Amino acid sequence: MSITFNTADDFPRVIDRFETVYLHPAAGGEPIAVDGALKRGHAARQRPGSGGGLADSDARWHLPVSVLETAPRISDRIVDGESIVWTIVEVHYEGSGRWLCICRNLALVSGMSEVIDIQRAVWTKDAAGAGRSTWHPWASALPARIQPLEARVVGDEGRTHLLATHQVLLAEVVDVDQDCRVVGPGGTVYRILGVRLPDQLGSPQILDVVEEAHP
Question: Which of 81, 92, 160, 213 suits a disulfide with 100, CB 3.0-4.6 Å?
Answer without folding.
Answer: 92
